[in-house]
Structure formats: C-alpha cells, structure tokens
Amino acid sequence: MLxxxxxxxxxxxxxxxxxxxxxxxxxxxxxxxxxxxRGAVDRIGEPISQCEVIVTQSHQGExxxxxxxxxxxxxxxxVQACLDQLTHPENGCLTEANEVAAIGFKAVHGGRKSGTFVxxxxxxxxxxEMSAAAxxxxxxxxxxxxxxRQRFPELPLVAAFETEFHDTISPExxxxxxxxxxxxxxxxxxxxFHGSSHRFIAERAAEVLxxxxxxxxxxxxxxxxSLTAIDSGKSIMTTMGMTPQTGVPQNNRVGDFDxxxxxxxxxxxxQSLEEVLKTLASQGGLKGLSGGMADLRDIESAAxxxxxxxxxxxxxxxxxxxxxxxxxxVALGRLDAIVFTGGIGENSDVVRAAVCAGLEGFGIELDASxxxxxxxxxxxxxxxxxxxxxxxxxxxxxxxxxxxxxxxAAQ
Length: 411
Ligand SMILES: Nc1ncnc2c1ncn2[C@@H]1O[C@H](COP(=O)(O)OP(=O)(O)O)[C@@H](O)[C@H]1O
Ligand SMILES: CC(=O)OP(=O)(O)O
Ligand SMILES: [Mg+2]
Hints:
By secondary structure, this protein is an alpha/beta fold. It contains 15 helices and 14 strands.
C-alpha cells in the first residue's frame, strides 16, 4: 500500500512516497527501506529555490536523482511539481497518481480538531477557523488539499495535526493566565506544534538510549523552531503556544512577545492591528532581528563577517532556546538527552555549540571536536557528560504515514 506524505514547512516543501505494506508498527519496521521516492524544495518564495528529487526505483528500474535551482514562488507550485515528477513517464515511479492509497498531510492547526482525520468539509472548516492563528501554515495546506481533492476526488486525504502529540500536557502547563471562560469556551490555550517531529524523536531516542523511560528535550530547530520536554515518550511541556508564532524566534515570525506592546506600536506607526500582526508574523523573528535574513545559513555567514545585527539575531535565538531548555530541565527533574533535529538542529554546529555553552555544571558537556561539521545521526557529548547530546535527523513523514493508515483503518 502506497502513501504519499506532504510536508509543507514554513520555508520548504518535502514529500515522501512510502510503501507501507506489511507490519509498519513493529520496532524493526525500517522506515528508510520503504521510501520509493522523496523530494524537497528549500527556500520557497525566495528568488531561487533549491529542489532535490530522488526516485529509488523509476519506471526504467533505475534510481533517478536530480538537483535543480529555480524559483518556486509558493507551495501550490511545489505540490504540482511533485505530482508531475512522480508520474513522469521515464523518471517517475507511478503510472497514475491514483496508484497511491492516500495522501497524508503534516497539517498544522485544526484547533478543535486535534488528532488525525480523513479530510472532509468539517476538517477544512476547522483549519480555516485557525488560518488567522497560523497564517504561514494553514492557508497553503488548505489550498493544497482543495487542489488535490478536485484533481483526485476518489483519493482519501488525511490530516495528521501537529498539535496531537501535545494532548498529554497537563492543564498547569497548557493554560494561559486569562479569564477562565476564554480557555473553556474558546480553547485559547497552549496547543504546541511540530508534534510529528517530536514524536519521531521520542521514538528514535528511546531506541538509541535503549530505554522507554528516558527524559529528553527535543530541540526541533528549522524554519520554525520549538523545544519539547518528553518523559517516557510523552510530551509534558513545549515552547509554542496558541499559535506557531510563539516560543523561540522563528524564521520570520516573532516568537514570545508582550501583547501590550501592540497598542503602542499601532499608535506610533499609525498602523492598523492587521498591519502590525502581519509584520510580526512575516517580518519578525530572525528576519526582523538581522535586517532581512530569514535563513540561518545567511545569518551565520554574515555574523562570521562581523555583521552586528546578524550576531545579535544568533544571540537572541540561542538565548531563547536556552531559557526554555532551563525551564524544561526543571520540569523533567533529570535529563538523559538533549536531541537536536530540524534543518538548523541537524546542520548548524554554531547553534548547537551556543546552546550547550557553559552547561558543564549541570552535567551537560559538548565535545567540540564531535560537534564541528557533524551531520546525520550521531552523538556530541564527552565521555564524562551525564546528559547525552544527540543529533537525530527527523522523519516527520514516517509518523504522518503511520498515523494516516491508522485513521483510514478506523473509518
Ligand atoms: N547547513 C545549514 N546550516 C545552517 N542552517 C541550515 C542549514 N541547512 C538548512 N538550515 C536551516 O534550516 C531551515 C529549514 O529547516 P526545515 O526544518 O527543513 O524547514 P521548515 O521549517 O520549512 O520545515 C532553513 O531555513 C535554514 O535556516
Ligand atoms: C509549525 C510547523 O509545522 O512548522 P514548520 O512546518 O515551519 O516546520
Ligand atoms: Mg518543518
């Protein structure tokens, strides 16, 4: 049974076509060997996007790999290019898109619909209600789902919402200090996001550490970044709140911010509430701090050349990560591992070193020689470190595929 998983990130589009036949629930289900094709478009919306496609077995029976650079203005163009690639007469691996049993989406905010659901009008409506709360994420997902529903009306679409993994967080850690009826009646609360990634890290870290009762902090750092404290496989605390604009600074979204600064900004800039919110959700975060650079690769290179704004952006970003790390260590009471994942966590030794700096007194010791240039799965701690420091590449698509199949079976 083939499942196509669509992952529309804030800066990227990634997809995997997975063969989910046989037992995919067991520990040796081997996610990598099930990938028939995968592709990624990086730097969506920038003048030049990087596109990579790998088809493990094409119609010609051979592996096909292509890397191109071209403008990909939005996620709609990326989804269309993915379907064209998969059904390409020579280099694709599907004769028709209908050979796929379902398309699973790493959907972001369903508000009242937190879980994994076959997409119907009610799911789309719930996502639409949350579009103002997740402006960078929900509109492209809704557009992609509507496009695919129109093109392939027989093909089930499944939405695995990012909030689901955080359903285990206690009321004390998910409730804002606001009038109680706002929480009860409107569910204004800390939902948390990146659930597929943090769940994958919980599963993989348990395998790597060889224990099911591990206490870990999963640092998913990418276009969007969030940390989650995980105890025995369950989320107990996370950094994003009601919306994916909160927590640590995001690529171009503000992160934690004092709501009472907003009326002052409106007064002094003569901007409407909508204009100020749009700025906070598209010109804030790393982009706002650095004077226009939303991608950490650009910020790192500008900072190394002495650019003061870029240095400050890096400093604010890593200090915010450390602030949350400290709170999570207290919530967990013991820390077996810090895990770095996501585009930044998996690739940036600069960020990993800054996050772990000076934590030796807590038993967290980074080995600089292991960290420098480290990519792929591996460990970065010294022999005497009490806490392990790991890099585990995330696999959100694997979690979405598994959850999508369960939702289809439960229908
Ligand atoms: N080699 C690298 N060094 C530093 N940062 C990187 C590197 N490669 C990717 N990144 C960062 O990772 C981000 C993408 O992360 P990812 O988790 O894939 O994105 P998304 O949030 O779109 O799902 C990029 O915006 C970039 O900031
Ligand atoms: C919140 C979320 O899913 O973020 P992103 O897709 O940008 O990583
Ligand atoms: Mg992502």
